[in-house]
Design a protein that fits this description.
globular, alpha/beta, homodimer
Chain lengths: 394, 394
């Protein structure tokens, strides 16, 4: 059955080589007079990117202040810092120069500026944001898809509580995407990004409530393309074409396109990973790869619509010989083999995490708390299921 | 090589059953206080759709006036009528209740209202529109993709001159798409629509200047899905799922998604058909099917990037046996066979058109005039090429 859906992708994407200089004109078109430039590591200062951005804004007479230091699993403390700075400086437009963490941190700052009260309320499911200060993106990492998505994930420093807030108000006005900016990423980050992109599609593709043949066909094409090009980047990390394929896939995987007609997705893997990211500060994509296979084996018998079978035969090239069960299991194995081939972990230990007895309980308990103890679409997971999966993923 | 691109799809799509009632709230959200409701045949009055729309607008306190009578290959005279009515009535928002012809006519009215001077100037390539009155769509025919595209095609009554204007200003604010509204379309119109959808994708897929593997994969999935579902609708025209697949494909085929990384497309078939539509008032999709095969055979030897080969093997299920030339020719034949299978014409006579000697010259001359005598991407076509293709398509 095809579910009703809303497709809302207002972000204007400017994609390709030598596009950074357009940031001034774009910001002006969307009404910016003073911009907060938000970034992560000092790499973007040293490699000249920030200077290019400053010059483009100067050329249009747009003022700017800067706040760096965003880390992976971006922290709430940095968000508060950004809100304070932007208020003091009368900023009216926000631009992220970075990857998903910087974009997510920026969106949280935007919520904080456009609404009264504590911004954490929106991540703690206490209130919904009514607005967001306008956001633009200069993307430097292909992974999270935050440049076109309605989502933002923030980690509260105390207790490592990682929470997401999905709201249409935070969709970026524009996203400048020059694949050259991703050329110098370390292999682990590139492959973790490719995994994240695949997962954004898989969470929707595998879910159980509603499907559309067209969405499936697009999702399958996207998955195959990312897998092919991740392999190319393993051998040839400065291949522009492969960087471009993966970068555009990052946006399309999470802007809503791969979810049209579905129930919105399963998202259990993502939520299980959030707790790992919150507690151990692992790379998001790698964390997803580490739990996916275990999760898949745990939920697959509830997959009454043959989604795992479709994935195996239409994306992973698994032969249809044998029973349906055998095909599905070979499919899950093929996916794990793919992760291994791009040097991604398929277990917690490979991820570099070995939880204590107590920590398994903490992970499951936090995950249950943040999901109302009712997680997923293929199979509903409760606290005991979560603990079982974390343990089996060891 | 992957070309730089801009991806701009601001239209909020509300897709699915029982969504018409949302038009009032949507119009209000986008600032409407008085709306022009534009439509084609009186069918939408008789079947209650217009009444539903009126009630939804009334519920939000939004005023409305109506102008029907838009015909396929929508006429400039109707556009002038709409501009005059909307001015007199102080309309500030435009809503199309219909298919591509109604949407295109509405966009032209929007240009006329938001700019000084004669609106035909924008279609006659004399000036570019600086703005467009905001537009919303309630779609009743899956075909043109105008509900998400930046394009509008109008026919000047005198001389049957059919011209298109592409501009970002005319992209719809919202599009309500309920597949149920397309259930009662006659077979010929449904299949003509499916052909048009495929052609919007093929014009880009086959072009010669730049390609992206991801875009190809999405285009191939879209083409296969439309072909499968057109066949289903031949047997079972009230199949909701198939109607939904084709309807969503109509938007995705022409909103820019299938062109990312390309040179923008070839568009020779479309421009050749425009002259047929202008002179003989044929259904657009059927006109495209009637010339496609002849055009393909005429240009294929210039296809240095193997696009026709890719189409044959990846979309049309043609075996790779034999020489490349043989595969390509079998592919073109397979496409024509598909058109025949959905009762579409593959020649002008099957289209119901048999031009006189003089008319062949007129068609080619008008097409050359409107394209600067330099048409297409795979192979540049000039007036003599156009005449040759029209004649060979007989």
């Amino acid at each position: 059955m095809i579910q009703n859906f809303i497709y809302n992708t207002p972000t204007r994407v400017v994609f390709g080589q030598d596009t950074i200089g357009q940031v001034g004109k774009l910001a002006k078109e969307f009404g910016a007079t003073k911009v907060l430039l938000h970034y992560g590591s000092e790499r973007v200062q040293k490699n000249g990117l920030m200077e290019q951005v400053r010059q483009a804004l100067d050329a249009e007479g747009i003022g700017h202040v800067e706040l760096g230091g965003v880390v992976p699993n971006p922290r709430l403390s940095k968000v508060y810092e950004g809100i304070e700075l932007a208020r003091k400086e009368n900023v009216d437009f926000l631009i992220a120069v970075g990857g998903g963490s910087v974009v997510d941190s920026l969106k949280a700052i935007g919520y904080g500026l456009a609404n009264e009260g504590d911004v954490w309320d929106f991540y703690d499911f206490k209130r919904k944001p009514a607005a967001c200060l306008p956001v633009g993106v200069i993307l430097t990492i292909a992974a999270a898809g935050s440049e076109m998505s309605n989502s933002s994930v923030i980690t509260k420093d105390e207790g490592g509580i990682k929470r997401g807030c999905n709201n249409e108000a935070c969709r970026a006005k524009f996203a400048i995407m020059d694949p050259n900016l991703t050329m110098t990423l370390p292999e682990y980050q590139t492959m973790s990004g490719a995994t994240d992109i695949m997962m954004h599609t898989l969470e929707r593709y595998l879910s159980s409530g509603g499907h559309m043949e067209l969405t499936d066909a697009l999702a399958e094409g996207l998955l195959r393309t990312v897998m092919q090009n991740a392999k190319i980047l393993l051998e040839d990390p400065s291949n522009y074409e492969a960087r471009a394929e993966v970068m555009w896939a990052s946006s399309l995987s999470h802007n809503g396109l791969t979810g049209c007609g579905t129930d919105g997705g399963d998202w259990a893997c993502h939520r299980l990973e959030h707790e790992l990211g919150g507690l151990y500060d692992v790379a998001h994509g790698a964390g997803l790869a580490a739990v996916w296979g275990t999760w898949a084996r745990y939920v697959r018998s509830n997959d009454k619509q043959g989604r795992f079978y479709k994935l195996a035969t239409r994306v992973l090239g698994v032969s249809a010989e044998g029973t349906e069960d055998e095909v599905v299991l070979r499919g899950i194995e093929a996916m794990e083999n793919f992760f291994r081939s791009i040097h991604m972990p398929t277990s917690l230990r490979e991820l570099g995490v070995d939880p204590t007895e107590e920590e398994y309980k903490v992970l499951a308990h936090k995950c249950a708390l943040s999901t109302g103890n009712n997680l997923g679409s293929i199979r509903k997971l409760h606290e005991e299921d979560m603990e079982t999966i974390y343990r089996a993923a060891r």
